[in-house]
Amino acid sequence: MAPLLRRLLAAEQRAFLHRDRRGWMEHLARTRAFLGAGLAAADAARPVLILGAGAGLEVPWGQAPKDSWGWDADPWSRARTGLRHLRWPAWIFEDLTGGLEALEQAARRCTREPWAEGRARPRERACARLAGLLPSLGAEGTALGSWIARYRPGVVLSANVMGQFGVVAQRLLEEILGPWPWVEDPEELDPLGEALDQWIARSLRAHLTRLAATPGSLRLVFDRGVVHGGDGLALGAWTDAWEEQLLGRGRLEVEDPLCGVDPVAELRLRDPVREVLKRERWLWPVAPGQTHVVEAVALGPPVL
Ligand SMILES: C[S@@+](CC[C@H](N)C(=O)[O-])C[C@H]1O[C@@H](n2cnc3c(N)ncnc32)[C@H](O)[C@@H]1O
To answer: Least enclosed by CB within 10 Å: which of 107, 158, 171, 251?
Structure first.
């Protein structure tokens, strides 16, 4: 993985670990219990794969069978997991989207004029050029597909990583194009922001296609939404549109980290008979004024 990406992922994880975690107790307990139930039920004769394993804050490695693998592109993730759990599992450090390096190269190319010995291109034109190129950039998650086909895991856990695909891609473009290359005013067009949202949605759909091909069961924990502001937030009755469940006072601003992709609906499209065994949602107060709607879903193995 390219040095900038390694540095970015390490910085993101450092920031995550250094947040004030006083409001995280319920989130951590529920995530650990949900992932732990998948680990405890795993067939010890088959490999287990933990995606977004990070520093092991949310992952109860003590319950993981011997042949369990972590997957996280942060270069410090395995060492942090080792220190926290006194265990050194096998690890894969690759980019799960499979598209971040191509995105980085394309963004770098767009910052230079091709005809003038690499002279810097004005930022607005670099952003417009990249917006035009983005639809042709793939993010197929090939490494994950190959790993699953080779090792045929009995369980795959996704530990809060899907909502990060977009965050990392955004940070990457901000590093290369300069701070905040997006158009803030919702009344104005933002071709780069929209093209990136579509890239994120494509990468998530490709990722879910890989997960749907898993021969074992799946347990996914992911950010379904990010809420800014509001007071006394709570979740109302379950509806597919997560925004409609939000109850509370005050002005709310909502963000969709999955750019319109509903993981369960996507998995169902690819494998309509795989059974949803359990589905939970809860609120995670990540920081003052920022609350995440977290969803956890357990799916059985494919029905053959
Ligand atoms: C919110 S953290 C999850 C924390 C982790 N579950 C734990 O228990 O510490 C998201 C993790 O996903 C990893 N990640 C983000 N994007 C990734 C990608 N494209 N490929 C591989 N790992 C990625 C980050 O390095 C980070 O460790």
So the answer is: 251
User: Taking the domain 3-299, which CATH number applies?
Assistant: 3.40.50.150
Per-residue CA distances from 79 to 50, 52, 56, 156, 301 (Å): 15, 14, 10, 21, 31
Q: Per-residue pLDDT tens for 193-209?
A: 999 999 999 999 999 99
Residues of the chain predicted below pLDDT 70: none
- Among residues 225, 104, 112, 110, the alpha carbon closest in space to that of 169 is found at 104
Give phi and psi for 152, each to the nearest 5: 45, 65
- Number of residues written out for the chain: 304
Q: CB neighbours of 166 closer than 8 A, spacing ≥ 6? A: 196, 197, 200, 257, 258, 259
Model pLDDT, residue 80: 97
| 160 C-alpha to ligand 1 centroid (Å) | 7
Backbone angles phi, psi at 283, to 5 degrees: -100, 140
Query: Hey, which of 21, 156, 164 would you mutate to test ligand 1's pocket, going by the most ligand atoms within 8 Å of its Cβ?
Result: 164
- What SS3 state is found at 132? helix
- Residue 262 makes CB contacts below 8 A (sequence gap 6+) with 240
Helix (H, G, I), strand (E, B) or coil at 114: coil
**What pLDDT, on the 0 to 100 scale, is given for residue 252?**
87
Specify the pLDDT at position 283.
96
**9 in contact with ligand 1, CB cutoff 6 A:** yes
**Tokens 């803030």 -> residue:** 184
